[in-house]
Amino acid sequence: MERYRILVKGIVKRDDRYLIVEKWYDDNIIEPYQWEFVDGEAEFGESPDAAVVRVVQEQTGLITVMDHVLYTWTFMIGSECNLGLAYLCLTDMDEDGVQLSEDLRDAKWISPEDFEEWINNSRMLEDLERAEIY
């Protein structure tokens, strides 16, 4: 039986800065907490566009508007195909108004020039560069 999962990533922008969040990944790695953009999974029957807006609000309290898809990615886990869509999401809410869910440890607003300093995922950095975010 084929199984698909739709993942969404909200790259939240306010003015010229982007929101990154610190979340737990794995106790078995040197740095179990890592900086990333807000991400989650679409619910069954939910459009990815609606999912990214919902996920960002649930995890950060921010109201955003989905602008457009920046890039996509796929990977397999066993017989499950995972499709990811990274969206540029815009907000005009106050930068200090972020209210993190319990799953997240911290949040920062950074400029694109600082992506390499905070984000360890080289593949994501390449995707952001191709999307002309930095």
Task: State the main characteristics.
134 residues, alpha+beta, Nucleoside Triphosphate Pyrophosphohydrolase, seven-stranded mixed sheet, 7 strands, 44% strand
Could you walk me through the main structural features you see in this protein, from its secondary elements to its overall organization?
With 134 residues, the chain is of the alpha+beta class. It has a single domain, classed as Nucleoside Triphosphate Pyrophosphohydrolase, CATH 3.90.79.10. Helix content is 19%, strand content 44%. Strands 1, 2, 3, 4, 5, 6 and 7 form a seven-stranded mixed sheet that branches. The model has no long low-confidence stretch (mean pLDDT 93).
